[in-house]
What we know:
The chain is mainly beta. The protein has one domain (about 1-395): Methylamine Dehydrogenase, Chain H (7 Propeller). The chain is about 5% helix and about 40% strand. The protein has helices spanning about 1-20, 155; strands at about 50-55, 65-70, 70-80, 85-90, 95-105, 125, 130, 135-140, 145-150, 170-175, 175-180, 185-195, 200-205, 215-220, 220-230, 230-235, 240-250, 260, 265, 270-275, 285, 300, 305-310, 310-315, 320-325, 335-340, 340-345, 350-355, 365-370, 380, 385-390, 390-395. The strands form 8 sheets. A 4-stranded antiparallel beta sheet has the order 1-32-31-30, with no helix packed on it. A 4-stranded antiparallel beta sheet has the order 2-3-4-5, with no helix packed on it. It is globular, with a radius of gyration of 20 Å.
Amino acid sequence: MRKHFLVFMVCLAICGAVSAQDWPCFRGPDTGVSKATGLPLSWDGKTGKGVAWKLELPGKGVSSPVVVGNRLYLTAAVGYLEKRLVVLAVDPGSGKQLWKRQLTATGPTACHPTTSMAGPTPVADAQGVYALFATGDLVSFSPDGDLRWYRSLVTDHPTVGNQVGMASSLALSGGLVIVQMENIGESFIAGIETGTGIEKWRIPRESSSTWNSPVAVQVGGKDRVIVQNAKGFVLLDPANGQEIWSHKGPMVPIASPAVSEGQLFACGSPFVAMPLGDSQGKITWESSKMGARHASPLAVDGKVYGVVQIGLNCLDAKSGKEVWQQRLKGPISASPVAADGRIYLFAEDGSGYVVKLGGDKPQLLATNTLGESVSATPAIQGGKLILRAEKHLWCFQAP
């Protein structure tokens, strides 16, 4: 008994150490902000400077990598009309592919050339990965690649889909996979049990083309989920899908909200900041200085950062007043991430910009070249910056 107890405690210690570095979902557990240190400042895709490893990808995709422990997961779509859907597992330390699983699309594969059937970012936990594709196929694999369960949402809801391509990523909250399926057909938000794939609850939504992703948050120690679309956002209880409060207003249907120090920051016309709590508060401030459509904002250390047409804007998180603007060559579709006192963001041409966090004036620390186009948001694990580009999965690390 004592031996088993000691093994159990060691496992807990190992899991705790690993989980502190996990990046289990789109933009990580803190809407783009990581506590990691020692990240690289510079790299070069052509010379290999700062490149720890790179892995050739099997197909198209704009989904981001997610990392839990010693597993990195990524999705791709291959073959004629992207009918074959792929889930990859990679060793984040070496870049070695551990396994690859394929399934056949059950839903339509029409989409805009800039996206893919591998548009939604998966989520992961210690039990494995949960991957959603734009075809409505939802699947879970164990860390070793064993099929845990599979759902064809299009079979259950035949009108789901649009001709542009769905890209809402998944969230995990309260032991459920949160699926935001808002499109021109039957629209809903659902909570699906992680262990079984069984739908625990589903709430109908007004049909509209939406590419925002749900955000799992903690409010007063309780699990909550923020869901945004073009007409506003709602705060939900993931245990049953019950709406706690909602905000109506013209919002961006692509970029997802950021959360920091009890405040919610969301892209719209105008950009809004408001308290995040079970009791809806008044809007803290509004701003016309954050015109982002694709890239989600960042909120960290009393500042809010957003990608705009000319580059990157910084606002004061308490007042909404503009602090500075950093001109960058775009366009930029990937959302910025922050760690180690820096903001990392990638332009579509592969340029990797590193901007200093905070300050009264902008400070561009580095401009790096890759040699491939980029639309996906990077992931951070420890001192590694992991990026999905057009043809390769890259890992950058300081020497």
